[in-house]
Amino acid sequence: MQPTALSGLPAGVGEALEAEGVADLYPPQEAAVEAGVLDGESLVAAVPTASGKTLIAELAMLSAIERGGKALYIVPLRALASEKKAEFERWEDHGVTVGVSTGNYDSDGEWLATRDVIVATSEKVDSLIRNGAPWIDDLTCVVSDEVHLVDDASRGPTLEVTLAKLRQVNPGLQTVALSATVGNADVIAEWLDAELVESEWRPIDLRVGVHFGNAINFDDGSQREVPVDRGEEQTARLVADALDTEEEGQGGSSLVFVNSRRNAESSARKLADVTGPRLTVDERDRLRELAAEIRGVSDTDTSEDLADAVEDGSAFHHAGLAAEHRSLIEGAFRDRLIKCVSATPTLAAGVNTPARRVVVRDWRRYDGEFGGMKPLDVLEVHQMCGRAGRPGLDPYGEAVLLASDADTMDELFDRYVWADAEPVRSKLAAEPALRTHVLATVASGFASTRGGLLEFLENTLYATQTDDAGRLAAVTDSVLEYLAANGFLERDREGGTESLSATGIGHTVSRLYLDPMSAATMIDGLRDVCAVDDAAVEGAAAGAYERSAAADAADDGEDPGFGTYSRVGGDDGGETDADDADVDAAGDPASDITPLGLYHLVSRTPDMYELYLKSGDRETYTEICYEREAEFLGDVPSEYEDVRFEDWLAALKTARLLEDWADEVDEDRIAERYGVGPGDIRGKVDTAEWLLRAAETLAADVDGVDGDAVLAVRRARKRVEYGVREQLLDLAGVRDVGRKRARRLYEAGVETRADLREADKGVVLGALRGRERTAERILEHAGREDPSMDGIDADRSASAAATAGSGDGDDEGQASLGDFR
DNA sequence: CGTCCATATCTGTAGACAGCATGTC
DNA sequence: CTACAGATATGGACG
């Protein structure tokens, strides 16, 4: 079937596809057309990666737009959102407009309503529904990429509920779900009332095999001799073999999957010995430039190690890397400059990075819950293998699992090569998931009674899959109880029906996109300190208070999730002695609220990913816990009796990291001290920023909009956001002034925004290392009348003072963490 | 007495969404 | 109830 023969697409699209080289549709695409994607039929396409799934989605969306509709493309990762956007933008020539909306990037709120195609993450779509984005009603086509992720325990339920909501809002909605080949695609199709297109077909052949001894044994019965000399690494030999196999004049790149960050790094180091000697002079030059760029992203050891490996054409890839690191590596690997990437599973599910050969080195991964090394899911291994075969470059892709003995080889064949992927199973009936979604469902008006709620939940995959309807109802009831007890929902029993409505705070929590338990934790902590400090404000916050007070009374049981409210005497631990001399301790109630207290509060919330306690950390943080006991908001669990103490310490470690960041500690110090990578630091800071912003809103509810708590939270948030001490807050708020410039200006004697307007220009210029343009911009943003730097000489002493004060080397030109995004 | 290698012991373990309002060196 | 690779410490043989 030729693209020009398709009907229902915008004018010129068929020809454009042909020009792109699409002479004939792939069999699964053809099947999708026959199933009616172009006519608005819903469809589940369960096909391998890189077999043209995206085109199926495009056909659906473009034909929907041609009929005057609007399409939404749901992605699982932010990085994929930009990738898809770029891909879809080629239709702008045909009058199709594209917009993106993710947590950190919005192509302008209102403007989205005018876009034909919107790309967003599932969480963002959920949030947009909760906040009543008007264009949701206009959607006629929704595409869900990687739907098999509904199986994911933490994020799957969001996708599931979001699809159910979209379909309820708009019963005629065309739903196109793209899935990996899974065990039960038919069930997904049944759930979505969709046609099913299932296929194993791939445009590039994939040969899967197991290497053992001196050869790879492929699934088709063929063998490839790859002898491993004594003492030589199996992986290294396979990577070398792929590189030395010159087909189409190109040595093939490899992707090596391992099971930990550390393994990824050490593997990359070792494989550098394989890739290094095979580089051309030109490649070496370009890699040196790339390495310099990598070093510029961050000055941590991680960054340095990565750059070292990259100079030899090898790289590692895991979540400890900063986002820039990752995209630099992905790009250079796609451009065939980097010959080999050793990666954790980040890369298996992330952006498109095909390789000539995929080596699955580790097939087991540590799992704390499991209590040891757990074999990877079949689906996961299939996804890794699916990365083999670069379109247009390779005649076929090779995926190789490694076995060290014959028994393992047999097991790998049985377990992965011959096996079908597991069936997808909904994880919706877990309490944390329902807690969030039940509140949101009620708050945004999808249900107003218990019966209506259960009816709505009938539209989820969970309901389609389970034969035990009672379980969902039971979990729902316990969640309703929790939400009511914490004052997020009101329940009224009248006759046989139980009506549900969200309270003011319930609506707020839903819109803030907080886990209700996070909100409860934060409210609890904030109320604790406000109640002690400021009884007068109580009246203003009565709305939020009463509910919870009533809830307290209703709840006698010690449910750990509820938190305990009464802490006797918040200031019994002596003076809280924060590092900030600027805070007026005496007589200022907000001084009871220290940044550490707030960082700990948000860190012990379920929305913050836990930092690991390593050996020795227990003692370290137990000590800190006692030293700074007075700063914590809420009750400190007992070291000996309370199982929550461990979590409390883990949160304390996170809080300390944030405190260090807000104390201008260099990122390499932080990385070393907490055993994390630059990506982790940035992630923590980002999450804290988000949660503190939410806490600010909650504090306004508890303490009144101008309460001390609100101000304290805002200050703590800004300090994390800018990564500066209290004294630099004013300066760092000026546009173009960040962590480093603020510190240099301050050391040169320019301490406030007002100083910037008055200060000697020579001093300012000196502190900014003689950058005239930058200095002018900053003065302008600070509101100076005459920002011109014409004829000003940089003050040498200002420059010297600034350099000495900032503590890092001169002229390194290194970006700090605060520079990301 | 220092070096090198073989063996025992210890240690630590994948991932990444959201709000809000615009910009670092 | 469950593992295992890499880093580090330990110890012995050797020149």
Automatic annotation (TrEMBL):
GO molecular function: 3'-5' DNA helicase activity; ATP binding; DNA binding; hydrolase activity, acting on acid anhydrides, in phosphorus-containing anhydrides
Matching Gene3D superfamilies: 1.10.3380.30, 5' to 3' exonuclease, C-terminal subdomain (1.10.150.20), P-loop containing nucleotide triphosphate hydrolases (3.40.50.300)
Keyword ATP-binding part of the UniProt annotation: yes
Pfam families per the UniProt record, alphabetical: DEAD, Helicase_dom4_arc, HHH_5
Its EC number(s): 5.6.2.4
Reactions performed catalytically: Couples ATP hydrolysis with the unwinding of duplex DNA by translocating in the 3'-5' direction; ATP + H2O = ADP + phosphate + H(+)
UniProt keyword terms in alphabetical order: ATP-binding, DNA damage, DNA repair, DNA-binding, Helicase, Hydrolase, Isomerase, Nucleotide-binding
Residues involved in ATP binding: Q29
Function description: DNA-dependent ATPase and 3'-5' DNA helicase that may be involved in repair of stalled replication forks.
HAMAP family: Helicase_Hel308
Protein name: ATP-dependent DNA helicase Hel308
Naturally occurring in which organism (per UniProt): Halorubrum rubrum
